[in-house]
Write a structure and sequence with these properties.
Blueprint: E1 2-7, H1 15-25, E2 29-33, H2 42-45, E3 48-59, E4 62-63, H3 73-77, H4 99-103, E5 109-110, E6 113-124, E7 127-134, H5 141-158, E8 163-167, H6 174-180, E9 185-190, H7 194-209, E10 214-219, H8 225-237, E11 242-246, H9 251-257, H10 262-266, H11 270-283, H12 286-289
Parallel strand pairs: 1-8, 1-9, 2-7, 2-8, 9-10, 10-11
Antiparallel strand pairs: 3-6, 4-5, 6-7
Helix pairs in contact: 5-6
Length: 292
C-alpha cells in the first residue's frame, strides 16, 4: 500500500483543489484529509458520514475549592499564568501540561480528559474518505492527524485499496510532521511567489529530515514565470522531480462554487489535460513505482 501526501508549505497554493482533481483520476484510492485544523476537502467530496467518533486529547486543570487550601503552589508553578488569584483556571490559558496537578500538596486539582473534536469515516463518489474536525481553539491537532492517518491505513487494508491520497495541512509545524512520517512520497504544491518559494524550501527540508521522497508541482505557474523558473532551478539543484506546471485557471473557482472538482467541471479543457499529465508523472516517479 502506498500513501501520497499533498503538502504546500503555506496556505492558499491550491493544494486541496489539486488533491480533489487527483481523486477524480485515481483508481482504487482512499481519501484522507489530514488538515484537521481547517478541513475543507469535504466541501468538494460531499461525504456521506457513516461513522462518527469523538476525539479526546489532553486535559484542562480544574481546581476543587473544597480541597484547595489556597497555598499558592499552583500559581507559582504555572508558567502560563493560567491560574488566577481566585484559584480558578483559565481554560484558554491552560496548556494542559499538568504541572499544577503533580505539585499540588493537597491533590486538589483534577485533570479530566476533554473532547477536542471528531473524526469520521465517510463514503464519497470517489471512494471512502477518512477526515476530522478539530474544535475551535483546541490543541493536539498533531495527535488527531496521526489518528486519522492510522484509521485511513486500517480502512484501506480492510477494503483492499492500494493507494491513500492524503490532503495534508499547510506549513511545517506539528500537524505537518504528523502527516509526513511513513508516507511513500510527498507532492509539494508550490506557487510562484516569494513566500511560496520560501515555504516550499522549508517543506522540502522537513521531508528530507524524515527521509520521505519529494516531488514538486508548480500551481499558477504563469502568474510569475521568473519565480516559476526559480522553483524549477531549486528543484533541479536538489535532485527533485518537477511533476507538472498547472496554469492559473478561474475554472477552479467556478468548480469550487458548484462543489465539483475541476475535472468534473471542465475535464476537457487544457487545464484538465495538464492535471492528467501531472498525475501520470506522479505515478511514474521512482518512489510511487517502487514496491512498498
Amino acid at each position: 500500500m502506498k500513501e501520497l501526501v499533498i503538502l504546500s508549505g503555506k496556505g492558499g497554493t491550491g493544494k486541496t483543489s489539486l488533491t480533489a482533481a487527483f481523486a477524480t483520476i485515481a483508481t482504487g484510492c482512499l481519501l484522507c484529509d489530514a488538515d484537521v485544523d481547517a478541513a475543507d476537502l469535504h466541501l468538494l467530496m460531499h461525504p456521506d458520514v457513516q461513522k462518527r467518533t469523538d476525539f479526546q486529547g489532553g486535559g484542562v486543570a480544574v481546581i476543587d475549592p473544597q480541597r484547595c487550601t489556597e497555598c499558592g503552589t499552583c500559581i507559582e508553578m504555572c508558567r502560563w499564568s493560567a491560574i488566577g488569584p481566585d484559584f480558578v483556571v483559565d481554560e484558554i490559558g491552560c496548556e494542559g501540561c499538568g504541572v499544577c496537578v503533580d505539585f499540588c500538596p493537597e491533590q486538589a486539582i483534577d485533570f479530566p480528559v476533554k473532547t477536542c473534536g471528531q473524526w469520521f469515516i465517510s463514503a464519497t463518489r470517489f471512494g471512502p474518505m477518512v477526515h476530522a474536525r478539530l474544535g475551535i481553539a483546541e490543541e493536539n491537532s498533531g495527535k488527531l492527524v496521526t489518528l486519522v492517518r492510522q484509521q485511513a491505513r486500517q480502512l484501506a487494508e480492510e477494503r483492499g485499496l492500494d493507494l491513500i491520497l492524503t490532503d495534508g495541512p499547510p506549513g511545517v509545524g506539528c500537524p505537518v510532521i504528523a502527516s509526513v512520517g511513513g508516507a511513500t512520497s510527498v507532492v509539494i504544491v508550490a506557487e510562484p511567489t516569494v513566500s511560496g518559494i520560501h515555504d516550499m524550501a522549508r517543506a522540502i527540508e522537513l521531508c528530507r529530515h524524515f527521509k520521505v521522497p519529494v516531488m514538486v508541482c508548480i500551481n499558477k505557474f504563469d502568474l510569475n514565470p521568473e519565480n516559476s523558473a526559480t522553483i524549477e532551478r531549486m528543484a533541479r539543484e536538489g535532485g527533485l522531480p518537477v511533476v507538472g506546471r498547472v496554469p492559473f485557471d478561474q475554472a477552479f473557482t467556478r468548480a469550487m462554487v458548484q462543489g465539483k472538482t475541476l475535472l468534473e467541471y471542465d475535464g476537457n479543457g487544457p487545464t484538465g489535460d495538464q492535471l492528467r499529465r501531472v498525475w501520470e508523472s506522479i505515478l511514474n516517479t521512482s518512489a510511487m513505482r517502487a514496491e512498498k
